Structures are given as C-alpha cells and as structure tokens.
User: What shape does this take?
Amino acid sequence: GAVVSQHPSRVICKSGTSVKIECRSLDFQATTMFWYRQFPKQSLMLMATSNEGSKATYEQGVEKDKFLINHASLTLSTLTVTSAHPEDSSFYICSAPRRFVSGQETQYFGPGTRLLVL
Amino acid sequence: AQSVSQHNHHVILSEAASLELGCNYSYGGTVNLFWYVQYPGQHLQLLLKYFSGDPLVKGIKGFEAEFIKSKFSFNLRKPSVQWSDTAEYFCAVNYGGATNKLIFGTGTLLAVQP
Assistant: This one.
C-alpha cells in the first residue's frame, strides 16, 4: 500500500534555530503534498499546499517566511521552521494524495514530527 | 467558511456496545467525505471514504458511514466495538473543485472499556 514517511519523528531545538522536516511518498509520486499542524487535543489545521515545481500555497494566517516549503521532487517535500520559538512547538504532519485508476483520490498521511522548541 | 464539526469530543463505551459518531459539514456543493482513525502513537489511517454512489459506505474493521445529503451529515457507525477500537476518529471533507485539500473536524476520542 501507499506509504508516506516523515523525518525526523521528533526534534528538540533551541529557540532561534531552524528545523527542517522531510516528507516522502515511498511508492508513488505526488505533485502536491500537504502540511498540517496539530495542537494537543485539537484537529489538524492545514498550513500549506506544497506544489512540485512551483511555490507553495499557504492558508490564511500562516507566515510563509516562517514556514518555508520546498517540493524538491515528485516524492519529497520539506518544511523548514525558521527561527523557531516555543510557540512553534507542535505536531507537524504531512500528507500526499494518490489518484487511483478509478479517478478517486485518497490522502495518505505521514507519522508526524513532534517539534519541541526550548 | 467551509467547516466540519464533530459534536462528540469524548466517547466512552464498553466492549460490544454500538457506536455512532456524528459528523456534519457546511454547505459547499459537491463534497468527498472521509473518516480517518489515529491509534495511540500511530499516524492517521483511512477508515472509509465517500465519493459518489451508494450513500452507505463500508470501510475497514467493520466500520460504516452513511452520507445523508439533506442533513449534511456523514456519521460513522460500528455495531459492536472492541477494545482495539480505542483511538481518535477524524471526519474530513474535500470540497472538490480544483483543490484536493482536506478540512478536518476536531476529532472524537473513543475509549472502549474491556
């Protein structure tokens, strides 16, 4: 089945540093990938849509200079949290849509990356 | 604004009890509907999905959901839950069109007591 991986699974960093999170689709190609943020006991909030070969599309209220997204290839998207602060601590999840022969599309989610900024 | 609501934040059931989790979405034309499950320490997994056709959709692990267009609802059901169903359940909607992004509900935490 389709699998999406994320690396690292958890990271602890000092305030002011930048952190890069990778999202890979392992057995299919994805021209778009999605980045979500999940706060404790809350739902997933879509941050941005990563587009292969073009700029990411950010949701309202998400700082594009803060959360840099690069869709380097058809199987890799990266999210860089720049100058991280404690309020950026959260669980970041990516997903990649896979379209089947039937035309239906299903999102497959990565295991998430837990970021803690001290 | 397009939104998805799940009214049950926490549900506690005994094994063999029946389950129904509510999901309502705001009007937005054509919709594709999903239920995802997140077991403790694991990533989101697709339970079932509705695109078109029969409004009663059957998914994995004995779950099913019914799309009722007039009520803007897509409730999740299981006739007899097991301890292993303890997890968080998310309803999600894709409003179609050119975008394939999902809007999630707030999730329902289900605890099944043995």
Q: What stands out?
A: The longest strand of chain B covers residues 87-94. Chain B touches chain A through 20 residues (CB under 8 Å).
